[in-house]
Design brief:
138 residues; alpha/beta; Rossmann fold; five-stranded parallel β-sheet; two-stranded antiparallel sheet; 7 strands; globular; NAD(P)-bd_dom_sf; CoA-binding protein; CoA-bd
C-alpha cells in the first residue's frame, strides 16, 4: 500500500476498532489509542479481558460484533498468530469494515489474502499513529 492510499484511509475513515487495546499506559496500543482520540477519531477498544471497563473514557468491547456501529478500520495490536481468528471475526460481521490495519511487525499472508478477497483493504506492518504523523501531521 502506497503513501497516498494510506493517507486517504486516514483522512476518510474515522471509526476504528482497536483490537488488543490495553489500559496499561506503557503499551503501544494505549499510546496509539490516545493519539487517535486526540485527532478526532472515534475509537472502540476491543479486549475480552477488559470488556465493560473503560480505557481513556471509552467503553471496552469483548468482540468486534459487540460494537454498536459500523467500523471503518479494524486496527490490530495482537500477535500475528491471532490474525486468522480476527479476520474470521471481521468476515462474520453483518457490515464489514473497509480496512484491516495490522500494526508494526504484525502480518499473516493467508489471513490478509482472505480479507482482500472479501473486498477489505489491508495495511500491514504500519503504525496508525506514525503514519498519521508522517502523512498528515500532528
Amino acid at each position: 500500500m502506497n503513501d497516498e492510499q494510506v493517507k486517504s484511509i486516514l483522512q476518510t475513515k474515522h471509526v476504528i476498532a482497536l483490537v488488543g487495546a490495553s489500559p496499561n499506559e506503557d503499551r503501544p496500543s494505549f499510546g496509539v489509542m490516545k493519539y487517535l482520540l486526540e485527532h478526532g477519531y472515534k475509537v472502540f477498544p476491543v479486549n475480552p479481558g477488559q470488556a465493560g471497563k473503560q480505557i481513556l473514557g471509552q467503553t471496552v468491547y469483548a468482540s468486534l460484533a459487540d460494537i454498536p456501529e459500523k467500523i471503518d478500520i479494524v486496527d490490530v495490536f495482537r500477535a500475528s498468530n491471532a490474525v486468522p481468528a480476527i479476520v474470521d471475526e471481521v468476515l462474520a460481521l453483518k457490515t464489514q469494515p473497509d480496512v484491516l490495519w495490522l500494526q508494526l511487525e504484525i502480518s499473516h499472508e493467508e489471513a490478509e489474502a482472505k480479507a482482500r478477497a472479501a473486498g477489505i483493504k489491508v495495511v500491514t506492518n504500519m503504525c496508525t499513529k506514525q503514519q498519521h504523523q508522517r502523512l498528515i501531521g500532528a
